[in-house]
Recover the amino acids of this structure.
């Protein structure tokens, strides 16, 4: 018999699958007990604190093994795909630049593509990270971008905190993510709406939330 798990900030289906010993998040995400939650949280990377997720019973796997012998068992650890597009203040992508990505205790290196995108498989239970971007000039290589990452902390776009996080990440600074639609958030919303051909209201209406989701979220 399974159990119910109350979500805490920073958790998503992938991290829950890792926590409870499942090879894939889909074992939890696609379970019939989570059907209603799945309708409201269509992106498995995004949950909200106090969401309740059903965790099915994870049966122990039995294997035959001889006595008085040494055996090797390999644990398959779930990975999740981290994808990010990085642009400057004028929305010009950091294209074909070298990057160093640190996720918890793991370090990765690579090069962004023509659109400024990087992709990297990381542990499903990763929580924090940092990204450095480098470029060459006549004096050698130098850092041209530095980003701090909080993985699994993005709230659903239906919440004001989710709206604020997406505005900040897209360069429409609204300050602290506090869940309050104050003057600074309203101004950021107006700038975002004006730039994207939406009615300029300063409100987080359904059309604005959907545009934010399409421009920001990856699945």
């Amino acid at each position: 018999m399974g159990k119910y798990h109350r979500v805490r900030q920073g958790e998503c289906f992938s991290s829950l699958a890792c926590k409870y010993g499942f090879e894939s998040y889909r074992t939890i995400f696609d379970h019939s007990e989570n059907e209603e939650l799945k309708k409201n949280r269509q992106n498995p990377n995004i949950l909200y604190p106090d969401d309740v997720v059903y965790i099915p019973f994870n049966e122990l796997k039995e294997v035959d093994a001889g006595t008085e012998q040494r055996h090797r068992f390999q644990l398959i650890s779930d990975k999740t795909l981290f994808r990010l597009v990085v642009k400057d203040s004028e929305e010009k992508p950091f294209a074909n630049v070298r990057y160093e990505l640190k996720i918890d205790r793991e370090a990765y290196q690579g090069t962004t593509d023509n659109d400024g995108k990087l992709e990297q498989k990381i542990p499903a239970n990763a929580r924090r990270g940092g990204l450095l971007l480098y470029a060459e000039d006549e004096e050698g290589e130098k850092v041209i971008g530095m980003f701090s990452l909080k993985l699994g902390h993005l709230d659903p776009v239906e919440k004001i905190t989710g709206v604020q996080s997406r505005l900040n990440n897209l360069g429409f600074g609204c300050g602290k993510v506090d869940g309050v639609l104050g003057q600074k958030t309203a101004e950021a919303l107006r700038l975002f709406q004006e730039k994207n051909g939406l009615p300029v209201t300063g409100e987080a209406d359904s059309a604005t939330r959907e545009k934010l989701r399409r421009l920001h979220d990856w699945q």
Notes: The radius of gyration is 21 Å.
